[in-house]
Amino acid sequence: MTEHPENDHDQADDHEGHPPVGKQVFITVFLALTVLTGASFVIGNYGLSMGLSKQLTWVVMMAISCAKAGLGICCFMHLWWEANWKWVLTVPSSIMAVFLVIMLIPDVGCRTDNYSSERWNRAASDSDEMQQAAPSHDPSESNSDASHE
Q1: Which three-class secondary structure string do you get for 85-109?
Q2: What are the φ/ψ torsions at residue 12 (nearest 5 degrees)?
Q3: Termini Cα distance of the chain
Q4: For 86-125, what is each residue's pLDDT tens digit?
Q5: Radius of gyration of the chain measured on its C-alpha atoms
């Protein structure tokens, strides 16, 4: 059996580059995540009844989600205590992600410009419109015609 010394400084889990972090930091982040989750729940379930538009509700929910992700990444992945090289990696990738979304907006927004009439007939729509546009189908009517022949 291989023996492992107790004070081996070459271990991968050695955190000598990180300053000691007290429990207070983790408790604070946990409380912040709890408050943000509560805010996300309230906005998601009661945002429209509070007078917010659907788009504003969506934007606020996305902002809360990004704040929660940032807290989790910075605290639990120890990015608060990393050197400044982290910005060399995160800023360019964030810029590329924003440009990707901006470049896809015209494709998503204009996807219906070239629909044929058949495609429009098969396209999804709101449930109210579907119920009004769909012909009523009574199984007794179709069976009565076939059974009398």
Answers
A1: CHHHHHHHHHHHHHHHHHHHHHHHH
A2: -70, -25
A3: 87
A4: 778 788 888 999 999 899 888 887 878 888 888 888 887 7
A5: 28
To the question of pTM greater than 0.70 for the whole model, the response is: no
Q: Round to whole Å and give the CA distance between 124 and 99.
A: 29
The answer to whether 139 and 147 have CB atoms below 8 angstroms apart is no
Residue range 57-93, pLDDT digits in tens: 999 999 999 999 989 888 888 777 777 777 787 888 8
67 CB-near residues (< 8 Å, 6+ apart): 36
The C-alpha atoms of residue 57 and residue 63 are separated, in whole angstroms, by: 10
Residue 19, helix vs strand vs coil:
coil
CA dihedral 16, 19, 24, 29 (to 10 degrees): -90
Residue 46's H or E segment, with its range, is: helix 23-46
Q: Rounded to whole angstroms, how far apart are CA atoms 58 and 60?
A: 6
Letter string b/e over residues 11-32, b meaning 16 or more CB atoms within 10 A of that residue's CB = eeeeeeeeeeeeeeeeeebeee
